[in-house]
Amino acid sequence: MMASVEASIWRDSVLSTPRIHLSSVYRILLLAQPSTMRRASKRKATKKGEAKSSEEHQRAPSRAKRVKASKPKSEPEFFPDQRNLEDLWKAVFPVGTEWDQLDSVYEYKWEFSNLEKAFEEGGELYGKKVYLFGCTEPQLVFFKGEAKVICIPVVVAVVSPFPPSDKIGINSVQREAEEIVPMKQMKMDWVPYIPLEDRDSRVDKLKSQIFMLSCTQRRAALKHLKIDRVKKYEYCLPYFYQPLKEDELEQSTIVQIIFPAEPKPVFCEFDWELDELEEFTNDLIKEEELSGDQKEAFKDYVKEKVREAKKANREAREARKKVLEEMSEETKAAFGSMKFYKFYPVKTPDSPDISNVKAPFINRYYGKAHMVL
């Protein structure tokens, strides 16, 4: 009886206790684990993931590398060696050339191999002290079937033991009177030319025999100059005074007349030995170059110019006589032995043929060259 009662009580207690599912028990056990165990579990999972990813990456097919096409090897290009004096003619300033025409001077492949050869053994300038200046001569020439007016570059060589002059003449038809000014006033001077083979040497140790007329006026600075100053460069002529012979100006009987008449000035030349002033003036009136009411003023103007010219000629003769009296015999000999050589470009397929337009005349001061090459 007692046993049945205890069994009944046990059954009732079991039935009254709440049931716990297995999944809930598993969660409780996991939460009960230490935090270090949980982190270790995560690291293992991460490593497994990385290993799997690495394995998949290794299994993935690798991309084919792009192969650059090799360029075909070009044949080596050879350039001819530059000649020792090849740039000599370009280094010489072309005196009197208009600024806007300078670029056209170098438009063609001019060659001055004749100038270079003149300095070689057996040449006209070999072993001599030489002073070079440049100029240009506008000429109508044919090139590649086309007639064109081009500025031909010319180089004048003066063989002299000393500079032929330190002055520049400024003259033109438009200017009433010529000016003779120091070269340095126009930023010009004689400077030594250094041949190509000597350009790595110290200039002060070189004994140069070639000097060239150079100009340091920069073209970029011209816009800051007055028009008259810019034009002066275009009217420049290398000046030379030969005291051993009478200058042409000393013998000349011609005066340039620029009479300020209205509506336009009168430009003419009057020769006081050949022209009769009254007749000369009447002819200008007949040709309507001068109005009748300006006749007397014109005659007075011409007379004044003739007086000035005669006075200048007389002073020039007296100055030349004084120079000769004070000049040493050595200097006289140097002036007497001076030679002028005029070089034109040689004929090449890349430049116009100028052989038919060569002339010995240099300018009004130097006169004619002793030799044209």
Q: If you had to describe this structure to a student in words, what would you say it looks like?
A:
By secondary structure, the protein is α+β, with helices and mostly antiparallel strands. It is built from 11 helices and 13 strands. It has helices at residues 2-16, 22-32, 35-59, 88-91, 102-105, 113-118, 227-234, 248-251, 277-286, 295-326, 329-337; strands at 130-143, 146-159, 167-170, 179-182, 188-192, 210-215, 236-238, 254-259, 266-271, 339-343, 361-363, 367-368, 371-372. It has a 6-stranded mixed beta sheet, with no helix packed on it. Strand 3 (167-170) and strand 4 form a beta hairpin. It is globular. It starts with a helix and ends with a strand. Residues 13-23 and 35-42 have low confidence and may be disordered.
Query: In which range does the helix fraction lie?
Result: 25-40%
β-strand amount? 15-25%
Secondary structure: number of strands: 13
Mean pLDDT: 76
Strand order of the main beta sheet, please? 5-6-1-2-10-13
How would a crystallographer describe the biggest sheet?
A: 6 strands, mixed
Give, in order, the helices and strands.
HHHHHHEEEEEEHEHEEHHHEEEE
- Distance separating the two termini: 160 Å
Uncertain runs = 13-23, 35-42
- Overall 3D geometry? globular
Given the helix and strand composition, which structural class is it? alpha+beta
* Rg for CA atoms: 49 Å
The DSSP helix count reads: 11
